[in-house]
Structures are given as C-alpha cells and as structure tokens.
C-alpha cells in the first residue's frame, strides 16, 4: 500500500499539501537532498517512494546500518550510467564516516538525491557535513483520521490491498485499530492484514473482523467496547483531572486502565503536559523528575515502565499546584493574535550590522551585568503594551512564593514611560 505518487501520501499535509515545500519541489522538478525524521510508521519511506513515483527518477532503498559501502557504490554507478537516482537511506544517523565521505561528492554533484530517514533528532545525531547538504523536515505522528483513511484504502484496493477478501470491519474494531497503534500506520496495516488473513470467511463469503480479533492481532486491549470510541478519551481526561484534583488513588486507577490497554505513549505524553500545566512553578523539581520518569519508562517499556510512572503520578498528585505559567503565555499569545504587537524599542533592536548605529538601534541599551545586582531600570515592552501584565504568580508552593516576592519587587521598580 505504499503510495505511488505524492497525492497518495496519507497525512503530512505540512510537507506535501498544496503549496507546501515537498510538493513544490516535485512540481518544479527541483529536488534537493533531505532528511525526514519522526516516529516509526509515519510515512518517511512512503514520502521518498512517492517523490520518486511523481518524478519518474530511479528509486533505491538502503539501510545505513546494515548495507555496506559496496551497495552505495552500485547506486553511484547506476546514477552515473542512467542519470539521477533517489536514494532512500534508512537509519541515516548510523552512517559511518567512510560511507559519508563516499556520499558527499555525489550529493554535491546532484547525481544522487538523498532522502535520509531517522527516528532520532538529526540536529543531534547526524554529522554536520551531511546536515549542511540536506534540508531537514519533521514527519509528524499520523492522526486517527489519517490511519482510518489508509485502512479504508487497503480494504478497498483489490490489487495492492485486501479488497478481494470482502472484509467487514466493525466500527469499534476500526476505532481501536486506528487509536491503539498510536499513529504508526505500518503497525495498523500489519495488524489488519493478520486479522484478515487469519479469520475464516462466513456464510456470505465475507471476512468479519471484530474488536476482539483486532485486540488479539495488535496485542492491545480496548478500554471498553463502546461504539463511539469516547471511553479512551474519557479515561485520559479523568487521569489528568484526578492529578489536578490531588486524588492519588483515582489517578493511579486511571493510569492502570491506560497501561492495561497498552497505551504507554498517552500516559507519558499526558504526564509531561500535566507536570508543566498543573504543577508548574509551584514545584519545578517535580516537573524535572517527571521528565526523568518518562525517559526511564521509554527505555524500560512495559511492564517495568509502570514503576517510574507511578512514582511520578504520586508526586504530582501530592504536590502543590499552579497553572500560572500556562495562563501567562496564553495571555501573551492572546495579545499577539489580536494584533497587539507594537514596535520593539530602539535600544533593544539588533546592533550587530553596519549602519545600525546611524539608525539608533541598540545605542542606548544598558547591559544589566554592568550594574549592581545585575539589574538596571529600562523599558523592554513596546510603548503600546507598557502596562501589560501576563504573569500573575500564585502562592501554592515555596518556590512560587519566592518568585512572587522577587517578581513584585521588579514590577514595582520597572520602567514606566
């Protein structure tokens, strides 16, 4: 079911949608080497395949970890003999220096258009020499609707999909398949294929795939057998609200339901959100420890992941709460979205270019570290927003109490036009 051209790509509209960067490259036939990074099963190889299909260039797939330099040489020879080749290089973060040195001149000449794929952050894991010769695009996790679209295509396609099996997929089975695979289309299609191929036909020559069959084929239990599929989100909502409400036992209960359904990813993502949204400045060390717990859970996987996550949940429940951080940034964003920007004061403008001094940019800026206590009174907000206050501190934890005291002192002595 891999897409044959760019129009068949599921999701990733920020890259392949109308007017977006990769579609523009394909339409203009001005392809450049790129690195696609993001979670597994989100379409990195599919994008590369679709680009090749849309441009009619030869397409080859290699793995940086397992394929040798000899395979790279064969692709290079093909490019020399027959023209440009699009090379999909999986796990590009594991590219060795000899392979990299061999590839660099080929990228420079345009003989090979490299499309690297990785689940790692390329700004950290990929050699700067490769990064400087590629554009880097983040591939996002597919939504449930994206997964459902791909499943329906597979069920209807007689040639490449499962159309000839006359599959009847129950609504709750579809919801669970799209949701429990957490945006990984490969896992969803693999689970669907196993379900169809291992289920006998009924009297009407149809393959009837139920929720129970999907649960078995993807090895993840549904939270409940509700047709609308709301129960999953209800449990996640109850999980956050229980922590926000400081009910430790309820929070542990709802997390247990999510973990039993195999939804480790939702638990980890929601815990990180809760830590900074609901606890925040009332107890910053708890936020840091939550990050550490999530990292440990990622390394451990289930069932051991339940241990650091339980510790984090208990601490967040018992911790003092504050949402002053999210309220502050949302208030600032609200101003920006309403057009309340204002001109940056001249003394704060960039002064690192020729002619800036003549424009008065940065000339009257006072460097705080040159003054007692590393602070000096001067204007920072635009004139039109001088009296704006976004951060309103709370007093639910010792840390934010101390912040409030310092913040109030600074506010009382800050610049007034």
UniProtKB/TrEMBL annotation:
A Pfam family assignment: AAA_assoc_2
Single Gene Ontology MF annotation: ATP binding
Example of a GO biological process term: DNA synthesis involved in DNA repair
Coiled coil: none
Keyword terms of this UniProt record: ATP-binding, Nucleotide-binding
SUPFAM superfamilies: P-loop containing nucleoside triphosphate hydrolases, post-AAA+ oligomerization domain-like
Top-level lineage group: Bacteria
Ranges of residues in domain AAA+ ATPase: 30-142
Alphabetical list of InterPro entries matching this protein: AAA+_ATPase, AAA_assoc_2, AAA_ATPase_RarA/MGS1/WRNIP1, ATPase_AAA_core, DNA_pol3_clamp-load_cplx_C, MgsA_C, P-loop_NTPase
Protein family (similarity comment): Belongs to the AAA ATPase family. RarA/MGS1/WRNIP1 subfamily.
Name this protein carries in UniProt: Replication-associated recombination protein A
Organism, as annotated: Ligilactobacillus ruminis (strain ATCC 27782 / RF3)
């Amino acid at each position: 079911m891999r897409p044959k051209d760019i129009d068949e790509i599921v999701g990733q509209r920020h890259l392949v949608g109308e007017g977006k960067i990769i579609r523009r490259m394909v339409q203009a036939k001005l392809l450049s080497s790129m690195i696609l990074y993001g979670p597994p099963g989100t379409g990195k190889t599919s994008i590369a395949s679709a680009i090749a299909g849309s441009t009619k260039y030869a397409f080859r797939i290699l793995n940086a970890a397992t394929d040798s330099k000899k395979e790279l040489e064969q692709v290079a020879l093909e490019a020399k003999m027959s023209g440009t080749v699009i090379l999909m290089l999986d796990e590009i973060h594991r590219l060795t220096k000899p392979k990299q040195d061999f590839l660099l001149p080929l990228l420079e000449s345009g003989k090979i258009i490299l499309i690297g794929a990785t689940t790692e952050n390329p700004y950290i894991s990929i050699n700067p020499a490769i990064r400087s010769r590629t554009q880097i695009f983040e591939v996002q996790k597919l939504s449930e609707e994206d997964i459902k679209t791909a499943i329906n295509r597979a069920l209807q396609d007689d040639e490449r999909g499962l159309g000839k099996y006359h599959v009847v997929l129950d609504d709750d089975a579809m919801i669970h398949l799209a949701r429990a695979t957490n945006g990984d289309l490969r896992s969803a299609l693999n689970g669907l294929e196993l379900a169809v191929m291992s289920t006998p036909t009924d009297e009407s020559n149809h393959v009837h795939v139920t929720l129970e069959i999907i649960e078995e084929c993807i090895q993840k239990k549904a939270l409940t057998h509700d047709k609308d599929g709301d129960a999953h989100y209800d449990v996640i909502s109850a999980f956050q609200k229980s922590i926000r409400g400081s009910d430790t036992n309820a929070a542990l209960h709802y997390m247990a339901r999510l973990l039993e359904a195999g939804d480790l990813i939702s638990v980890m993502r929601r815990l990180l959100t809760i830590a900074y949204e609901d606890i925040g400045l009332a107890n910053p060390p708890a936020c840091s420890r939550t990050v550490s717990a999530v990292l440990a859970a990622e390394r451990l996987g289930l069932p051991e992941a339940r241990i650091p996550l339980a510790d984090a949940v208990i601490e967040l429940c018992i911790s003092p709460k504050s949402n002053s951080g999210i309220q502050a940034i949302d208030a600032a964003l609200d101003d920006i979205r309403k057009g309340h920007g204002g001109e940056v004061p001249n003394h704060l403008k960039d002064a690192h270019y020729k002619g800036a001094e003549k424009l008065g940019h940065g000339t009257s800026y006072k460097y705080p570290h040159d003054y007692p206590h590393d602070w000096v009174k001067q204007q920072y907000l635009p004139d039109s927003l001088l009296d704006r206050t976004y951060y309103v501190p709370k007093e639910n934890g010792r840390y934010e109490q101390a912040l409030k005291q310092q913040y109030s002192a600074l506010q009382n002595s800050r610049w007034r036009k």
